[in-house]
Write a structure and sequence with these properties.
2 copies of one chain form a homodimer. Chain A has about 350 residues and is of the alpha/beta class. In chain A, about 25% of the residues lie in helices and about 25% in strands.
């Protein structure tokens, strides 16, 4: 088989605000790949099926000498994110052609994927019957794990308590809402469009509101106080949650999408209530919690997703050439449901 | 014995910024008290010896319908704080004349003190030989307990780790410095005057700096990263500590003196690092931890204070008529050492 074009989305430069396709990232078709003969050097050649666009990717668009929890993107090289692919050829025990793999993949139609990456090295998985494999970058993957691990580890939920979930329609928030309802809590959820608010209610939120048209402080004052706050957004929403926290509230600090695209900082008025109300804020990343919760997660959650007992939604972008736009959409929040980039059919 | 004047410091009005003696509080000598005949109604008549002026008292100067962890001051009534007194007469088992008591006392020369107050009801204590009783509102009292309980419960300190203590020269911070050194940590401390910086070093801080003349971010960048941050001040210092936190840092959120006298809020730039670095922030009050740690504290700490093994310092204001000024001094930070108001000699 002759070499074929290997489309790739390359990282170009650090954005000043929201990432812009064509500027922050550039789609490139200048390279070809010879699938039969490209040297594997102990690695695994993967055909990319779906890629994930996640909020944290903005954190990877930074000067390469600044450390953070995910490695930075390198100018001129493909961006990378979690994805699902199929093994084409393998030089590694445990990986064979046609296996599904999940883990960090380059935004390329084909890539040599790394099982040994320090975070999210690829691993083989068998999709749950009835569950489409794209779910494995969403509710059955990192976002779902984030919800499950964080909730289990930190929420210390008691029936009758009240939880507020910001970013409630996202792949993390929507699972948190459902875990909280299963534990017998009253759930307040916020989201940035009326369509997202509707989805929050569909998955069980008792109260859901559009934070762009409704005052968060007012809602929380009326519906709180909060025993638990699941924070996907940071910023003034965090401040409002602190102002309406119950004594001994638990705050699960999961993300801060409101802050990723700005260097302005945020005016916080209620931080002194952290000690006054004895709030504990748990910053966490799933990589730390995986050893404790991963096996349980895979045993329980994919089945519930396949049966519909736990709901999830996807917002699909077709074509790798559009991955830059998909990434931007997630930063701005115009996606409805887990943003998935479909790169190829099987 | 004829009735005598009972001087009192009355609460007058909510300050807009720092409390002002004569405006926020007013010293009043209009009442007399008949020590022999004043009805006790099951209570305890106490002669006030020393009173404490603490940062949290600013939190009590608020509208009475706003809840917080300490009850609000009531306009027209005496302010109150922790203090040491001597029992004059008692209508209560367990309290007899000449007993020393510690707990919430009115800012009055004599008061009917309450053993049943929900927080800090008075209790009898026997001063450790060699330890002046004023220490029982400082290093041997609430501030020392705050340090001890919080450190034991949340610091999870390991030898060789680095801790940053803001408000390092205060009665809480200076004990934290010493507990940290005993646990084998590197200690960075900040304070607001050169004299306070000197005291931080005297009690063992490896690095101490005046945050008004030295950039906190620069010091922490050079001397960090921080495994533990003991936060007495909040605000931009907290932001700087977050920016220089190690992964899995523990933040002990003890106070926020930088915020009590302002409604401006504070511009925070690094809150997203709470999750990125997996920081846990523990808001706490000693009342929650007392059942677990109080007995151990009283068994260990007063002896070490009496022997000089643990150092403390006091900044004394003489005369109840000056308690309003003492309270202001603590808010501004012009005191050096634990602010104690000496109301009477024994």
């Amino acid at each position: 088989m002759a070499p074929i074009t290997n489309g790739r989305t390359l990282y170009n430069e650090i954005p000043t605000g929201f990432p812009e396709p064509g500027k922050t990232t550039v789609y490139d078709t200048s390279l070809t790949i010879d699938l039969e003969n490209v040297p594997l050097n102990g690695g695994v050649l993967v055909k990319t099926l779906v890629l994930s666009a996640d909020p944290y990717m903005r954190v990877q668009m930074r000067p390469v000498d600044i450390e953070s929890y995910m490695p930075p993107f390198i100018p001129g090289q493909p961006i990378f994110s979690l994805g699902v692919g199929k093994v084409v050829r393998s030089d590694r025990d445990g990986f064979k052609p046609e296996d599904y793999v999940y883990g960090l993949l380059d935004h390329a139609q084909y890539c040599l994927a790394n099982p040994d990456a320090p975070v999210f090295g690829i691993r083989v998985f068998v999709p749950e019957p009835g569950l489409r494999y794209s779910a494995y970058v969403g509710a059955a993957g990192m976002p779902g794990q984030t919800s499950y691990y964080g909730w289990k580890e930190y929420a210390n939920a008691k029936p009758g308590e009240t939880v507020f979930v910001s970013g409630g329609a996202g792949p993390v928030g929507s699972i948190v809402i459902q875990l909280a309802k299963r534990d017998g809590l009253k759930v307040i959820a916020s989201a940035g469009t009326d369509e997202k608010v509707k989805f929050c209610k569909e998955v069980g939120a008792d109260v859901a509101f559009n934070y762009k048209t409704t005052n968060t402080l007012d809602v929380l004052k009326k519906e709180g106080p909060l025993n638990i706050y699941w924070d996907n957004v940071g910023g003034t929403t965090l401040d409002a949650a602190i102002a309406n926290a119950a004594n001994h509230a638990r705050f699960v600090e999961c993300g801060a999408i409101s802050q990723y695209n700005s260097k302005e900082g945020v005016n916080m008025k209620n931080l002194d209530q952290i000690y006054a109300r004895r709030i504990i804020l748990y910053g966490f990343l799933i990589s730390d919690l995986a050893p404790k919760w991963e096996a349980e997660f895979y045993k329980i959650i994919p089945k519930k997703l396949a049966s519909g007992e736990i709901k999830f939604s996807e917002d699909i972008t077709y074509g790798l050439e559009n991955s830059g736009q998909a990434i931007r959409d997630v930063q701005i929040g115009t996606n409805t449901g887990k943003k998935v980039i479909v790169v190829a059919q099987e």
